[in-house]
Design brief:
The protein has 165 residues and is of the alpha/beta class. The protein has a single domain, classed as Alpha-Beta Barrel (Aconitase, domain 4). It contains 8 helices and 7 strands. It has a 7-stranded mixed β-sheet. Helix 4 crosses helix 5 and helix 7 packs across helix 8. The two termini are 26 Å apart.
Amino acid sequence: MKLTGRAWKYRANVDTDVIIPARYLMEFRAEELAKHCMEDLDPTFVQEVRKGDVIVAGRSFGIGSSREHAPVAIKASGIAAVIAPSYARIFYRNAINVGLPVVECDGIDEDVEKGDEVEVDLTEGTVRNSRTGNVFRFKQYPDFMLKIIEAGGLVNYTREKLRAG
């Protein structure tokens, strides 16, 4: 599974309150959450993000509260994947549960600049920056997690499994 998109670059320690501000947490519709994704950190994000773009960030992306709203907002905004050296564990799991690929990749945050074209190969476990030509390796997902992502999240994956018997 290959994803290619334009990079949005963010710092380390981006917390869930910045990804989706708490004032919007009464909202559960993904398309409404997407309208406010990253607005306190980057007011241009919601106007300029395109389907298939990727977020590249520093360490500890998604720290803070355990709300599922954050990966839902990111995915609904059109982001195809998030790449960072590390994540808050609950954010990582919530992202997989909603079908948002999150890749742990050391050094990527030092190589990528905003606007770079980045190719993520979830099957091969590689990230390539088209501008620099650098290729980074990451630990591939176990098969079951890749299937959850491909299904669009844990709920869809479970529905498919139940239908199949």
